[in-house]
């Protein structure tokens, strides 16, 4: 009897970690989407690459200080560190840059609709790379979301080719990031904080070179509102929210799965979708587009119910019960 109670407590504790980490990621993802959209559209900041560099730099600074203060722990830089996390640095910067580019070019309702394709890609990648086969109910909910996204995209009155390309590339990098992040976390070589720190560190200098050669660094440098208190506050907040988002992604993937993390990221877009229709003024309404968005939202709700209400046949056992960032 005592053993049975212990198993039930373990299951309940594991469920709490899964739900709380997913909620934390969803809230953080919603907040940074709104803040990024404010910086790039409301303040018309021309350089989304500089915003991405700021987020990477903030991650490096916060984790470096945290390690010096012994708040977090991760291995020191070695010759083989880069290859331990490859190809995550390349996936990380691609996911960040194209995500910010899509946020700038598209209205939030269409951005969120097109982001649903990352769920299908993640599901396929999990099957072929991690050997995880989704249930029928999961597949049904994913296909519902994709169908809704296609309906919405079929009547996009503010079609932007560059924005569509950015979002589709963002979807590819998001799927790859979720799957490979789960794989690297399972290996436990660097831990959650180590993956975040070295992902940002290794891609910071190449990101600066790319921003310089593309002219994005120049346009951002001569932006006229650098001394505006409102803009500067949003820009700095976006940079540090980038670090918090990265941590929440790792935490959610650690306690759940890559597909769940991707779905939660799209589920928060329920709020983003409807807020985006009335804010920033770049959404063009049509009934077909609106119905497509609602179908996609319905699919997100179905998946959430299926994922967190399904009966656990085996007690969930996380990789490590340590809730801190310094799992090594």
Short description, anyone?
With 328 residues, the chain is an all-alpha fold. The protein is built from 14 helices and no strands.
Helix content range: over 70%
**Proportion of residues in extended strands:** under 5%
Structural class: mainly alpha
CA-based shape: globular
Main pleated sheet: none
| N-to-C order of helices and strands | HHHHHHHHHHHHHH
Describe this structure in words.
The protein is an all-alpha fold and 328 residues long. 77% of the residues lie in helices and 0% in strands. It has 14 helices and no strands. Helix 2 (48-68) packs across helix 11. The model is unreliable at 311-328 (pLDDT under 50).
Layout of strands and helices, then pairs:
Elements: H1 2-42, H2 48-68, H3 81-85, H4 88-105, H5 108-115, H6 117-130, H7 136-154, H8 161-187, H9 191-214, H10 216-221, H11 229-255, H12 258-267, H13 269-278, H14 287-309
Helix pairs in contact: 1-11, 1-12, 2-4, 2-9, 2-11, 4-8, 4-9, 5-7, 5-13, 6-8, 6-12, 7-14, 8-11, 8-12, 11-12, 12-14
Label this structure with key terms.
328 residues; mainly alpha; 14 helices; disordered C terminus
């Amino acid at each position: 009897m005592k053993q049975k109670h212990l198993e039930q407590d373990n299951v309940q504790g594991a469920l709490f970690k899964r739900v709380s980490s997913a909620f934390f990621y969803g809230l953080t993802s919603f907040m940074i989407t709104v803040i990024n959209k404010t910086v790039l559209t409301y303040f018309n900041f021309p350089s989304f690459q500089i915003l991405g560099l700021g987020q990477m730099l903030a991650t490096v600074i916060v984790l470096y200080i945290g390690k010096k203060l012994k708040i977090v722990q991760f291995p020191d830089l070695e010759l083989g560190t880069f290859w331990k996390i490859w190809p995550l640095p390349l996936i990380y910067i691609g996911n960040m840059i194209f995500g910010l580019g899509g946020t700038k070019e598209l209205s939030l309702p269409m951005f969120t609709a097109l982001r649903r394709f990352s769920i299908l890609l993640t599901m396929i990648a999990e099957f072929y790379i991690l050997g995880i086969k989704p249930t029928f109910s999961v597949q049904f909910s994913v296909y519902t979301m994709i169908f809704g996204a296609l309906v919405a995209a079929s009547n996009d009155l503010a079609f932007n080719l560059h924005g569509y390309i950015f979002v589709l590339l963002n979807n590819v990098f998001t799927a790859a990031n979720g799957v490979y992040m789960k794989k690297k976390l399972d290996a436990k070589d660097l831990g959650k904080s180590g993956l975040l720190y070295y992902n940002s560190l290794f891609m910071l200098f190449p990101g600066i070179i790319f921003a310089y050669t593309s002219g994005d660094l120049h346009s951002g440098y001569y932006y006229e509102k650098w001394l505006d208190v409102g803009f500067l506050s949003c820009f700095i907040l976006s940079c540090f929210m980038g670090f918090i988002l990265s941590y929440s992604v790792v935490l959610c993937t650690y306690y759940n799965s890559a597909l769940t993390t991707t779905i939660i990221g799209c589920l928060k877009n329920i709020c983003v979708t409807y807020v985006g229709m009335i804010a920033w003024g770049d959404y063009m309404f049509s009934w077909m587009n609106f119905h497509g968005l609602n179908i996609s939202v319905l699919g997100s709700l179905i998946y959430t119910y299926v994922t967190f209400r399904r009966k656990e046949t085996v007690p969930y056992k996380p990789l490590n019960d340590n809730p801190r960032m310094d799992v090594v």
